[in-house]
Specification:
With 363 residues, this protein is an all-beta fold. It has no helices and 28 strands. The two termini are 13 Å apart.
Length: 363
């Protein structure tokens, strides 16, 4: 069985084919890109319409994907957004897209009813009173399973912003403070699916912990109550010398995976947590099961395959640019990758030397 992968690093967007039977990844397209396309959002109503940006600038792009001809065709671009956007997220209808700017600490609200994005407004992530003396670093917008609210993780102000996705200007309706110095980066709602979430798992870059919040939906927003804190390292002292990257929840809501990066070790790791769901006499808990090498350095982003059988991991440095880690039936990861792309095969001495920052299975 073959799966198609979208891979991106500074100056390049790749289409690739992962063939599980032969355990190979072949590069089908190397599309030059004027900047750093560090994240992509796929339209929820059209899987062949992709949006990205130049993280080093302020340009937002829309591309048409054709896997039959192995082409990416630019269909629109806009210079109206904030500089230094590092994440994009859609509402369920695909009509609104949020861009989180790390550089400016802002949240861009885009109208994406057509393929040509139009900027509606830009929201300041920082509260002038609560966050006085801090520098806002909006890092990710996450749509809750009901489609009603976005949560924006701000790494600089140690805050979560709840935005109402059903109101035209998508206003901030609640601010949630997390422990000072945590550095909120990425998060996932639990459980997976369309029902209202019961919990939010927040991966913090500075503290290298997963902060768990219990949720209560109201008529106008979502309340967050702290319900647990877990190191992403078996040896918690290692968390003082690292910076967490990505967090992913399995489709069956039984497992959570995070990436540990910017360490001094030769390679870095994916941490695997088993979720112990809440019951009549017990609260939800996370159990750190293992750490598995990515065979490279600085795994900023990784993603689950569509069937849930593998993790696709991008490394910004090290020997391997992309690796495929197989998941066992119990959710644990096999230590040896089943396939990969060597860094030397795609980074060949020109321009920015960093490896992939994004890898996702596309259809």
């Amino acid at each position: 069985m073959s799966r198609r992968l979208l891979i991106a690093r500074p100056g390049h967007i790749y289409l690739a084919t992962y063939t599980s039977a032969s355990a190979t990844i072949s590069i089908d397209l190397d599309e030059p890109f004027p900047g750093n396309p560090s994240w992509f959002a796929v339209s929820p109503t059209d899987p062949h319409l992709l949006y990205t940006f130049d993280e080093n600038g302020s340009t937002t792009y829309a591309f048409r994907l054709d896997l039959t001809s192995n082409t990416l065709t630019k269909v629109a671009q806009s210079e109206d957004g904030s500089e230094g956007v590092c994440h994009l997220a859609f509402n369920k209808l695909g009509s609104i897209m949020l861009g989180a700017s790390y550089a400016e600490g802002t949240i861009d609200i885009w109208n994406t009813e057509s393929s040509n994005p139009e900027l509606i407004t830009t929201i300041q992530s920082k509260d002038p009173v609560i966050d006085a003396g801090r520098v806002a670093r909006a890092h990710q917008a996450v749509l809750d399973p009901t489609g009603r609210f976005f949560v924006v993780n701000d790494l600089g102000t140690d805050a979560l912003l709840v935005l109402d996705a059903l109101r035209p200007d998508v206003p901030v309706v609640r601010r949630v403070c997390v422990p000072s110095g945590s550095g909120p980066r990425h998060g996932v709602f639990y459980p997976a699916g369309d029902a209202p979430a019961t919990h939010y798992f927040l991966l913090c870059e500075t503290s290298n912990r997963v902060e768990v919040f219990k949720l209560k939906y109201t008529e106008v927003d979502v309340e967050f109550v702290a319900a647990g804190s877990y190191s992403t390292f078996l040896d918690e002292e290692m968390g003082a010398f690292a910076a967490a990257g990505e967090i992913v929840l399995s489709a069956d809501s039984k497992h959570v995976y995070t990436s540990n990066r910017l360490m001094t070790s030769p390679t870095e790791t994916i941490a695997h947590f088993r979720i112990k769901p809440e019951g009549e006499d017990a609260e939800l808990e996370l159990e750190l099961v293992a750490e598995t090498s990515t065979q490279g350095k600085h795994p900023r982003m990784f993603s689950l395959s569509r069937n849930g059988n593998e993790l696709f991991v991008g490394n910004q440095e090290g020997e391997w640019a992309v690796v495929v880690l197989r998941r066992k039936e119990d959710g644990t990861l096999e230590e040896k990758p089943v396939a990969g792309v060597l860094m030397e095969d795609i980074v060949k001495g020109e321009g920015d030397q960093r490896g992939p920052m994004f890898v996702l299975e596309v259809v």
